[in-house]
Amino acid sequence: MIGGGCGMFASCLRWRRQRRSVGRSGDQDLAPVLLVSGMGGSILNARSKETGAELRVWVRLLLADLEFRKLWSLFNPETGCTECLDPHIEIVVPDDDYGLYAIDILDPSWFTKLVHLTDVYHFHDMIDMLIGCGYQKGTTLFGFGYDFRQSNRIDKVISALKEKLITAYKASGGKKVEIISHSMGGLLVRCFLSLHKDVFEKYVSKWICIATPFQGAPGYINDCLLTGLQFVDGFESFFFVSRWTMHQLLVECPSIYEMLPNPEFKWKRKPLINVWRKQPDSKDGSVVKLDTYDSTESTTLFEEALRNNEVKYNGKSVPVPFNLSILKWAADTRKTLENASLPENVSFYSIYGTSFDTPFDVSYGSEDSPIGDLSEVCHTTPEYSYVDGDGTVPAESAKADGLPAAARMGVPANHRGLLRDETVFELLKQWLGVDQKNAMALPTSKVADAPPR
After folding, report:
1. Strand pairing category for 273-278 and 356-364
2. How far is it, in rounded angstroms, from Cα 285 to Cα 292?
3. Where does 30-257+324-354+386-449 sit in CATH, by number?
4. Which contiguous run of DSSP H or E holds residue 47?
5. Active-site residue, from 390, 397, 401, 421
6. For residue 83, what are the contacts with CB-CB under 8 A and spacing of at least 6?
7. Active-site entry in 122, 124, 247, 415
8. 442: pLDDT confidence band, cut at 50, 70 and 90?
9. pTM of the model
10. In 172-315, beta strands by DSSP E
């Protein structure tokens, strides 16, 4: 029985490899598709500057929390780059498999594949779907992963995206590229559009964004800067990067600051940070006040709560307070994003998640258990109020792109689940112009929601 199971498993692997390398028919009429990942959606390797040896530091299960610390960094306001604390390494993104390897299965170890740990299966199912529709790696299918710690408008990343577009354009025989971006990848593409509209117009025909936080992700990002991020939940979290280890990276990431809620956006109601706080003159805690901070006031809280924050790296303590230089950089990025305008010959489509409770306001402490010193906030379990969205990005933010869309569609799926959702796949086939006979009859109005399943 065991031998038979292994034989079946080997046959499945051979079939999958054949399918992924050849595709259904290798349709030469297809325009090239470029998949662009978002925050945390690319494999990152630490490369020794001395030996050139590389070690995967994101994503991994074995020794995850320890090796992840190689990503800890400090922002350089002169260059706009976040630079590793360890001067002997540099962070690189593997470009194997035409850029697809880095955004496919984020931990491509044998164990992850054996148990099919879907938390790290990123663009994997979508890549399979596109290959099944006739797309071919290196001819009509490409991926773009990048160092997601960095700003979405940094020259190095923007230049790399330009080169990838040119590569896809030439490899397909001069066909314009159709971009599919996920999450923060949409902000990166929008920055590129703003900074290089002429290049975008020359090489791009369609842009389909999925779950993009155009106006920020209030509850999620506010809490990232204060308490960190738990990337996976449940039993797997014991083998993964801890929330606080993640926090010490994110507080120096320009990309995180660039996803703070846009204070200029006309939200249906302003996102808030609430802190139940014991008054300084109340020694017995009998006087408790609810302090509320909106997007224009939150800097005061961030500064005070993170004033003593530090990381211990290679035996040294490095101060990592709230970074006002990054905040200023992010404000300029917001201007870049708002200056983007879509060329007339480029079609824009948007998919956003619905039907999931999505953090909006975030609260710390309670009336019965108030916060004393604000630095305690960083080690407090948050409580959220929720709005509709994909569990990470509010639908209100994802819909507010301000661009002339050919179609927008709400799909009941969570943030990462959108990358493997069958309704999303049918929409992509329809908008890319493939498998029209088998495509679902879905509405294509400017704003619509797919029916719940």
Report:
1. parallel
2. 19
3. 3.40.50.1820
4. strand 44-48
5. 390
6. 73, 74, 75, 76
7. 415
8. very low
9. 0.90
10. 177-182, 204-210, 273-278, 288-293, 310-313
